[in-house]
Design brief:
215 residues, alpha/beta, eight-stranded mixed sheet, 7 helices
Length: 215
Amino acid sequence: MIFSEGDDSPLALDLRPDWGALFGEAAGRLELEIGCGHGGFALAFASRHPERALVGIEQRRKFASELAGRASRRGLTNLLVLQGDAKLLAPRLFAAGSLRAIHVHFPDPWWKRRHHRRRLLDDGMSALLFGLLSPGGELDFRTDVESYGAEALLRLAEVGFENAAGAGRFAEEDPSEVPSSREKRYLSSGQRVYRLRLRRAAEGAEARARVHSLP
């Protein structure tokens, strides 16, 4: 399935969809991928984990449409593809504390300093991701740009995320993780991927998070 920001459907509005009706029992393990690209991760994840529900938000309509078609042909009923800006859609679609995990893989680093404000993980988005995760929920962030990863570590720690690898440290590669198509190319060529595996603490961190909500 694919829905867009402009579609006249409950998913395009601020109505908090009935995820149970959409996904059945898998809705109890609801996860989000921001920036699906060609969908290598989303398709593999949904296939490997039928007991989990994955919502993918992709800004480029062509990519979102193609991914939705591939998911439909494979019968992946636990994968829903949305087209639009995650900064706008996520707070409309998900209640605070409702996501078990959020996946952000290889976001555009926007190299030029004057473009840094366009980066996905600004202060507002970092706080939003923290607020959408359930206590104990995990943020799975991957990048091929070390400086971007280091900056993200600092920013995410400021809003309350805990880093099991230790303050300022990247996570080690986990063979059980699902790689995206892009990551497979990096792994085969030996190019390093910088991983952040961060959690929302079960207690105490809420007061530090500047959780953004819609008016």
